[in-house]
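re the bet — no i am not wrong, look at it urself. input seq straight from the record:
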Amino acid sequence: MNKLDMNEDVYSYMSKGISTQSFMDSEQVLDSVGDFYKQNIKSLQIRFKKEFKMSLKEKGMLIGKKLINKQANDKIKDDVAYINSIIDWIYSQITIEKDKNVIERLRFNRNAEEIFRSGKIVDANDIALLFTTFAKQLRLPTAQLYTIDKNKIENVLNGEKYCGHIFCECYCGDKWYLVDPAFRKIAEEYDPNSIKITYLGKGEKTYVAYDRQVDKEQKGIANHLENQRKLLKEMIERSEEQDLVQ
Protein backbone atom coordinates (compact mmCIF):
# COMPACT_ATOMS: atom_id res chain seq x y z
CA MET A 1 0.00 0.00 0.00
CA ASN A 2 3.06 2.28 0.01
CA LYS A 3 1.98 3.93 -3.25
CA LEU A 4 -0.53 5.95 -1.22
CA ASP A 5 2.33 7.53 0.75
CA MET A 6 0.35 7.83 3.97
CA ASN A 7 0.36 6.66 7.56
CA GLU A 8 -3.34 6.63 8.36
CA ASP A 9 -5.59 3.63 7.89
CA VAL A 10 -6.26 3.12 4.20
CA TYR A 11 -10.04 2.97 4.54
CA SER A 12 -9.99 6.11 6.66
CA TYR A 13 -8.22 7.87 3.77
CA MET A 14 -10.84 6.73 1.30
CA SER A 15 -13.61 8.56 3.16
CA LYS A 16 -11.85 11.91 2.79
CA GLY A 17 -10.95 14.25 -0.03
CA ILE A 18 -11.34 17.77 -1.39
CA SER A 19 -11.61 16.80 -5.04
CA THR A 20 -12.54 13.14 -4.69
CA GLN A 21 -15.07 13.18 -1.86
CA SER A 22 -17.89 10.66 -2.44
CA PHE A 23 -21.22 12.26 -3.20
CA MET A 24 -23.47 9.38 -4.28
CA ASP A 25 -25.08 6.56 -2.33
CA SER A 26 -22.57 3.71 -2.15
CA GLU A 27 -25.20 1.01 -2.76
CA GLN A 28 -26.31 2.82 -5.92
CA VAL A 29 -22.73 3.02 -7.20
CA LEU A 30 -22.08 -0.64 -6.34
CA ASP A 31 -25.27 -1.81 -8.08
CA SER A 32 -24.51 0.26 -11.20
CA VAL A 33 -20.93 -0.97 -11.48
CA GLY A 34 -22.11 -4.52 -10.69
CA ASP A 35 -24.41 -4.51 -13.72
CA PHE A 36 -21.47 -3.69 -16.01
CA TYR A 37 -19.31 -6.27 -14.22
CA LYS A 38 -21.81 -9.04 -14.99
CA GLN A 39 -21.81 -8.00 -18.66
CA ASN A 40 -18.02 -7.89 -18.80
CA ILE A 41 -17.60 -11.31 -17.18
CA LYS A 42 -20.14 -12.81 -19.59
CA SER A 43 -18.41 -11.33 -22.66
CA LEU A 44 -15.02 -12.49 -21.39
CA GLN A 45 -16.33 -16.01 -20.89
CA ILE A 46 -17.70 -16.10 -24.44
CA ARG A 47 -14.44 -14.77 -25.91
CA PHE A 48 -12.21 -17.14 -23.96
CA LYS A 49 -14.42 -20.13 -24.84
CA LYS A 50 -14.09 -19.26 -28.54
CA GLU A 51 -10.31 -18.86 -28.23
CA PHE A 52 -9.98 -22.15 -26.35
CA LYS A 53 -12.17 -24.06 -28.83
CA MET A 54 -10.18 -22.63 -31.75
CA SER A 55 -6.91 -23.65 -30.10
CA LEU A 56 -8.23 -27.20 -29.59
CA LYS A 57 -9.45 -27.39 -33.18
CA GLU A 58 -6.02 -26.36 -34.47
CA LYS A 59 -4.45 -29.09 -32.32
CA GLY A 60 -7.01 -31.65 -33.48
CA MET A 61 -8.31 -32.17 -29.93
CA LEU A 62 -11.81 -32.62 -28.57
CA ILE A 63 -12.78 -32.19 -24.89
CA GLY A 64 -16.00 -31.81 -22.95
CA LYS A 65 -18.06 -28.67 -22.36
CA LYS A 66 -17.29 -28.64 -18.61
CA LEU A 67 -13.56 -28.42 -19.21
CA ILE A 68 -14.03 -25.67 -21.78
CA ASN A 69 -16.10 -23.67 -19.28
CA LYS A 70 -13.49 -24.25 -16.57
CA GLN A 71 -10.68 -23.07 -18.83
CA ALA A 72 -12.63 -19.93 -19.70
CA ASN A 73 -13.38 -19.14 -16.05
CA ASP A 74 -9.78 -19.77 -15.00
CA LYS A 75 -8.54 -17.31 -17.61
CA ILE A 76 -10.76 -14.44 -16.46
CA LYS A 77 -9.01 -11.81 -14.37
CA ASP A 78 -11.78 -10.73 -12.01
CA ASP A 79 -10.02 -7.61 -10.73
CA VAL A 80 -9.28 -6.31 -14.24
CA ALA A 81 -12.90 -6.90 -15.24
CA TYR A 82 -14.05 -5.03 -12.13
CA ILE A 83 -11.79 -2.03 -12.78
CA ASN A 84 -13.04 -1.97 -16.38
CA SER A 85 -16.61 -2.02 -15.09
CA ILE A 86 -16.06 1.14 -13.05
CA ILE A 87 -14.69 2.89 -16.14
CA ASP A 88 -17.54 1.59 -18.34
CA TRP A 89 -20.18 2.83 -15.90
CA ILE A 90 -18.59 6.30 -15.62
CA TYR A 91 -18.50 6.65 -19.41
CA SER A 92 -22.16 5.65 -19.58
CA GLN A 93 -22.93 8.72 -17.44
CA ILE A 94 -20.81 11.40 -19.14
CA THR A 95 -19.86 12.81 -22.53
CA ILE A 96 -16.79 14.74 -23.73
CA GLU A 97 -16.96 18.54 -23.94
CA LYS A 98 -16.13 19.87 -27.43
CA ASP A 99 -16.21 23.65 -26.89
CA LYS A 100 -12.55 24.80 -26.64
CA ASN A 101 -13.42 27.89 -24.60
CA VAL A 102 -15.33 25.80 -22.06
CA ILE A 103 -12.50 23.27 -21.93
CA GLU A 104 -9.90 25.93 -21.20
CA ARG A 105 -12.06 27.51 -18.50
CA LEU A 106 -12.83 24.25 -16.71
CA ARG A 107 -9.51 22.41 -16.87
CA PHE A 108 -8.21 21.52 -13.39
CA ASN A 109 -10.97 23.68 -11.96
CA ARG A 110 -13.67 21.28 -10.69
CA ASN A 111 -14.05 18.56 -8.11
CA ALA A 112 -15.48 15.12 -8.95
CA GLU A 113 -19.05 15.99 -8.02
CA GLU A 114 -19.07 19.11 -10.20
CA ILE A 115 -17.71 17.10 -13.12
CA PHE A 116 -20.21 14.26 -12.69
CA ARG A 117 -23.23 16.54 -12.19
CA SER A 118 -22.34 18.49 -15.34
CA GLY A 119 -22.34 15.25 -17.34
CA LYS A 120 -19.22 16.35 -19.24
CA ILE A 121 -15.47 15.85 -18.94
CA VAL A 122 -12.92 18.16 -20.54
CA ASP A 123 -9.67 16.17 -20.22
CA ALA A 124 -7.85 13.19 -18.71
CA ASN A 125 -7.75 14.89 -15.31
CA ASP A 126 -11.56 14.94 -15.13
CA ILE A 127 -11.99 11.25 -15.88
CA ALA A 128 -9.12 10.37 -13.50
CA LEU A 129 -10.87 12.32 -10.72
CA LEU A 130 -14.12 10.46 -11.35
CA PHE A 131 -12.41 7.08 -11.46
CA THR A 132 -10.49 7.81 -8.24
CA THR A 133 -13.64 8.98 -6.46
CA PHE A 134 -15.76 5.95 -7.32
CA ALA A 135 -12.90 3.45 -6.85
CA LYS A 136 -12.32 4.88 -3.37
CA GLN A 137 -16.03 4.66 -2.64
CA LEU A 138 -15.95 1.00 -3.65
CA ARG A 139 -13.07 0.49 -1.19
CA LEU A 140 -10.32 0.21 -3.78
CA PRO A 141 -7.27 2.27 -2.73
CA THR A 142 -6.51 4.57 -5.66
CA ALA A 143 -4.02 7.34 -6.36
CA GLN A 144 -3.57 9.70 -9.31
CA LEU A 145 -0.23 9.51 -11.11
CA TYR A 146 0.84 12.70 -12.89
CA THR A 147 3.21 11.97 -15.78
CA ILE A 148 4.94 13.72 -18.64
CA ASP A 149 6.24 12.60 -22.02
CA LYS A 150 9.97 12.01 -21.43
CA ASN A 151 10.82 14.00 -24.56
CA LYS A 152 8.84 17.01 -23.31
CA ILE A 153 10.54 17.54 -19.95
CA GLU A 154 13.13 20.02 -21.22
CA ASN A 155 10.50 21.92 -23.24
CA VAL A 156 8.28 22.32 -20.17
CA LEU A 157 11.17 23.54 -18.05
CA ASN A 158 11.82 26.13 -20.76
CA GLY A 159 8.27 27.45 -20.52
CA GLU A 160 6.21 25.32 -22.92
CA LYS A 161 2.64 24.68 -21.75
CA TYR A 162 2.15 20.93 -21.77
CA CYS A 163 -0.03 19.10 -19.25
CA GLY A 164 1.25 15.58 -19.76
CA HIS A 165 -1.04 12.68 -18.93
CA ILE A 166 -2.76 11.49 -15.77
CA PHE A 167 -3.04 7.81 -14.95
CA CYS A 168 -4.45 6.17 -11.83
CA GLU A 169 -2.91 3.48 -9.66
CA CYS A 170 -5.57 1.16 -8.28
CA TYR A 171 -5.13 -1.58 -5.68
CA CYS A 172 -7.44 -4.48 -6.49
CA GLY A 173 -7.14 -8.20 -5.75
CA ASP A 174 -3.95 -7.74 -3.68
CA LYS A 175 -2.14 -6.01 -6.53
CA TRP A 176 -1.52 -2.52 -7.90
CA TYR A 177 -2.66 -1.80 -11.46
CA LEU A 178 -1.86 1.15 -13.69
CA VAL A 179 -5.17 2.45 -15.03
CA ASP A 180 -5.62 4.92 -17.86
CA PRO A 181 -9.33 5.83 -17.60
CA ALA A 182 -9.08 8.28 -20.51
CA PHE A 183 -8.22 5.48 -22.94
CA ARG A 184 -9.73 2.57 -20.96
CA LYS A 185 -6.41 0.76 -20.59
CA ILE A 186 -5.12 -1.29 -17.65
CA ALA A 187 -1.56 -2.56 -17.11
CA GLU A 188 -0.76 -5.31 -14.62
CA GLU A 189 3.01 -4.71 -14.70
CA TYR A 190 4.47 -1.22 -14.96
CA ASP A 191 7.32 1.06 -13.96
CA PRO A 192 6.08 4.55 -12.96
CA ASN A 193 9.46 5.98 -14.04
CA SER A 194 9.11 4.56 -17.53
CA ILE A 195 5.53 4.02 -18.69
CA LYS A 196 5.62 2.93 -22.32
CA ILE A 197 2.40 3.22 -24.29
CA THR A 198 1.59 2.69 -27.96
CA TYR A 199 -2.16 3.25 -28.06
CA LEU A 200 -2.07 6.99 -28.83
CA GLY A 201 -1.50 6.27 -32.52
CA LYS A 202 1.88 8.04 -32.71
CA GLY A 203 4.28 5.18 -32.09
CA GLU A 204 5.69 4.31 -28.69
CA LYS A 205 5.90 7.04 -26.06
CA THR A 206 7.56 6.93 -22.67
CA TYR A 207 5.93 8.78 -19.77
CA VAL A 208 7.69 9.63 -16.52
CA ALA A 209 5.79 10.11 -13.24
CA TYR A 210 6.64 13.34 -11.41
CA ASP A 211 3.85 13.38 -8.81
CA ARG A 212 1.48 11.00 -7.03
CA GLN A 213 -1.61 12.33 -5.25
CA VAL A 214 -4.39 10.63 -3.34
CA ASP A 215 -6.40 13.86 -3.39
CA LYS A 216 -5.55 17.25 -4.81
CA GLU A 217 -7.46 20.52 -4.72
CA GLN A 218 -8.18 21.80 -8.21
CA LYS A 219 -7.00 25.40 -8.64
CA GLY A 220 -7.00 25.91 -12.39
CA ILE A 221 -4.70 25.19 -15.31
CA ALA A 222 -2.18 27.95 -14.49
CA ASN A 223 -1.63 26.57 -11.00
CA HIS A 224 -1.28 23.04 -12.38
CA LEU A 225 1.39 24.09 -14.90
CA GLU A 226 3.32 26.08 -12.30
CA ASN A 227 3.27 23.15 -9.88
CA GLN A 228 4.28 20.79 -12.69
CA ARG A 229 7.42 22.81 -13.50
CA LYS A 230 8.34 22.97 -9.82
CA LEU A 231 7.99 19.21 -9.37
CA LEU A 232 9.92 18.46 -12.57
CA LYS A 233 12.83 20.62 -11.37
CA GLU A 234 12.82 18.78 -8.04
CA MET A 235 12.73 15.43 -9.83
CA ILE A 236 15.73 16.32 -12.01
CA GLU A 237 17.68 17.66 -9.03
CA ARG A 238 17.10 14.40 -7.15
CA SER A 239 18.19 12.43 -10.20
CA GLU A 240 21.39 14.48 -10.54
CA GLU A 241 22.19 14.04 -6.84
CA GLN A 242 21.76 10.26 -7.15
CA ASP A 243 24.11 10.22 -10.16
CA LEU A 244 26.74 12.10 -8.16
CA VAL A 245 26.45 9.66 -5.26
CA GLN A 246 26.82 6.69 -7.56
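see?? The two ends are 29 Å apart (CA to CA). told u. also The first helix runs from residue 10 to 13. so pay up
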